[in-house]
Amino acid sequence: MSNVKRLCQSLLLALLAFGGGGVLSSGCASMREGTDARDAGRASSDRSISVPAVTPPVPSYRAAGGLCARLDLREVGRLVGLTGDQRDVSAGSGRFAGTSCVVTVGRLPSGVVVTVRADIGGAGSGRVMFEGLRQAQGADLQVSDLSGLGAAAYFCVDPVAGVTVATYDANVYLTVTAAALRPGGRLPDAVAVALRDTASSALDALRV
User: Fold this and answer.
1) pLDDT 10s digits, 34-49
2) Contact 117, 173 (CB under 8 A)
3) How far is 190 from 178, CA to CA, in rounded Å?
4) Where in the chain are the domains?
């Protein structure tokens, strides 16, 4: 038995002397074949979880009562005086809902009547109404873009109807009109800019 033991030890030493360690190592590697680190990396990448992009919510609007009390008329008031009478009107027809508000700002002879109207429908209806009605404006009316309001806005000056600011966002089309309280009266030059604040406050009041 001692001779056999010594023979085995001699063979082991010989293997180590001639690079047997490499042979032994390659043997271990061959036993782990198929578990290469690169394979593990590929498996890890194959298991990666894709996170869906978060879509920001689309704003929407609904008819609301008491709109007059929630309007910002301060800039209009600075032009013509204090706020007078107020009247709210709401109506619905089919898929559309309408909310309007009439406010007297100031007194004779320089006061104005401000009318706010919101037409609320299905998704995207605001843009359809805005673009269609803008194209329908008469060629003799002065129409100018107005920045900082809704998705887009403009104002037009009508010698009879007064100054109207029109805007839209999502499912609402909104107009704000200022007309002279005294028939034939003249409106302040800056009234369109003042009405922008009124229109913005109306959108805030109607937003869901």
Assistant:
1) 445 455 555 444 555 6
2) no
3) 11
4) 2-46, 68-206
